[in-house]
Amino acid sequence: MRDLSAGPRVLLKRLRELMAEPLEPQERLDRIVRQIASNMVAEVCSVYVLRSDGVLELYATEGLNKDAVHLAQLKMGQGLVGTIAASAQPLNLSDAQAHPAFRYLPETGEEIYHSFLGVPILRAGRTLGVLVVQNKAQRNYREDEVEAMETTAMVIAEMIATGELKKITQPGLELDLTRAITLDADGYNEGIGLGHVVLHEPRVVVTNLLNEDADKEIERLAEAIGSLRLSIDDMLSRREVAQEGEHREVLETYRMFAHDQGWVRRMEEAIRNGLTAEAAVEKVQSDTKARMMRLTDPYLRERMHDFDDLANRLLRQLTGFSGRAMDQGFPIDAIVFARAMGAAELLDYPRANLRGLVLEDGAVTSHVVIVARAMGIPVIGQAAGVVALAENGDSVIIDGDEGQVHLRPMADLVKAYEEKVRLRARRQEQFRALRDVDPVTRDGKRITLLMNAGLMVDLPQLAESGADGIGLFRTELQFMIASQMPKLEEQEAFYRNVLRQAAGHSVTFRTLDIGGDKVVSYFRSQEEENPALGWRAIRLSLDRPGLLRTQLRALLRASAGSELKMMLPMVTEVSEIRAVRDLMQKEVQHLSKFGHGLPRKLQFGAMLEVPALMWQLDELMTEVDFVSVGSNDLFQFSMAADRGNARVSDRFDILGKPFLRILRDIVRAADRNKTPLTLCGEMAGKPLSAMALLAIGFRSVSMTPTSIGPVKAMLLGLDVDLLAGELNQVLDDTRSDVSVRELLVNFATTHNIPL
């Protein structure tokens, strides 16, 4: 392809000057189309802008009837202009009226023009409008002229993106870039967040479009691509990246994109046509993204994310942009948008300013979601494409209860959600009023309400929620947010700090539950086909006794002079408990030998999550000081239904008879062995399922801090024995199809129990 002629170069330079002049928006647009028409030797140049209602409106023209400006309209997909907008691809025709999509607009007076060239006005892959030139004579526009038009469209895209055209938009209408969007996604943590968008990886804004020396810009591009390729090769060669598995194929595809000569050639052509290196990257990125966004193949759409990320890395190389959201200012009501992010990255943000988190990827069990839950902020996951639709500072509402993102919401929706937030706040005030009320049921049964925790940010909620203590402290979170294995002294200081801030309340530490879906970057492990059933938790710890003994020693030293409660996760056989007890005894002897203080009382427990323990119940109950049921894992393992798999996660009811019978058998085994029993898991934190737990005999439950108020409000009005009689009758009846869930709802309604 040949270089741009002097004419198009002059055009770009003149457009840049026009953008800098203090002009009113309409005058600026009018001059732009006039300049393009003159430079392209076109008799017509028109700009159509996409509105929020999907209509392309004529905003400026040179050559068509001036009275048609702001009156001539085409729907997306309608006519030649609508076809370009819908496909995000140029249309170059020698006889436009012969094209089947041609639509005649009599108010424009364009019937005398035959040749037609239209290009989409793109930004970040989104179509913002269409730029058109026309001539009376039949001709095909040259390839370099198409390139010139696409480059010119980038200038107009920035004009639209800055909001300058709002002044000349008809009253009551909005441009597509600012339209309200509602996305249905997955709610990963309940709650409502109102605030403003903060892009975790801020978009690089290219302001310098026109180059002065094409050869120099190509050299800059080559250097940046070389650095990018080296960084990817380095990433693939690291030891922590396993040599086999699906993830390896993804990374190899990533490297293939970086070495794609077609991609490089298109960027070089854009530079020869007058753009700077960074503007060339942005142009090719936007063109490619616009095409790929319209693909239906999920694999190819996923590859779009890889390409987009690669282009963003290259832009940062060229511009020196840090890519940190914190460098761009941080609003007091921030809702962070990210494709994906690490747990430690979320903790870098000021907690007081965070109102929510929105992820394109991730799962309900991912590290960052676990940490976000601990921080008590609403989380939305699997919000496909949301990052490309948002801009820093956009107003947004996220609804973790319904799994929705409302981007740039309309005023009436904002008012509705503000009222909803006020209602929730009033309910929270009511729950706070119950903080110091003893959790005793209507028929006099004292229930122990504990909270789950795992980070220092959780601990203030112990006093705020009125919890009796911490029933589950996830020690693995300290490991998951660290960049390297925490040393003995770091672990000890952390556990001592937890106990100090707990201020005399009981804390039950769960030993490391890493492995499976809880991958720690600095801990080498092999790819597993079914990690949830693989090398994780106590299995991993027993195979790495040095890791376990370091943690046990840190817990013992941190608890010197006080009580230590610790429990083991993912126990499958009672022999595993005995093996850990032996290691614990060795650590006690070691600390005693060297004069270290020891806990005044040690309680040793186990989590019941693996169904195999159901046939070792009495043996288990006599082996430990207490048992904690992990209802999340026990349910998914009992039902053989992966809770992270949307196709089966809701297939079976946690309040169905089979699972409640399992839980009731555990309660009866604990009662006959006089072993303290607690249940930790999501069902403990929901008033309806908590009702069932109390009815089958649980007297201690552990949940998220925000759930304690609603559960306490429920139990204060509950006659446990009355419900137990009805529920046990249904569980014992093997022929009845009565729904336990319906029974509970009806009971709560009849007895005015708040849910």
From TrEMBL:
Pfam families xrefs: GAF, PEP-utilisers_N, PEP-utilizers, PEP-utilizers_C
Catalytically driven reaction(s): L-histidyl-[protein] + phosphoenolpyruvate = N(pros)-phospho-L-histidyl-[protein] + pyruvate
Family: Belongs to the PEP-utilizing enzyme family.
Entries under SUPFAM superfamilies matching the protein: Enzyme I of the PEP:sugar phosphotransferase system HPr-binding (sub)domain, GAF domain-like, Phosphoenolpyruvate/pyruvate domain, Phosphohistidine domain
Name of encoding gene: ptsP
Cofactor: Mg(2+)
Phylogenetic placement of the source organism: Bacteria, Pseudomonadati, Pseudomonadota, Alphaproteobacteria, Hyphomicrobiales
Highest taxon above the source species: Bacteria
Cellular compartment(s): Cytoplasm
Protein's UniProt name: phosphoenolpyruvate--protein phosphotransferase
EC number: 2.7.3.9
GO molecular function, one term: phosphoenolpyruvate-protein phosphotransferase activity
Chief place of localization: cytoplasm
Record flagged with keyword ATP-binding: no
NCBIfam families noted in UniProt: PTS_I_fam
UniProt keyword annotations, A-Z: Cytoplasm, Kinase, Magnesium, Metal-binding, Phosphotransferase system, Sugar transport, Transferase, Transport
Ranges for domain GAF: 24-170
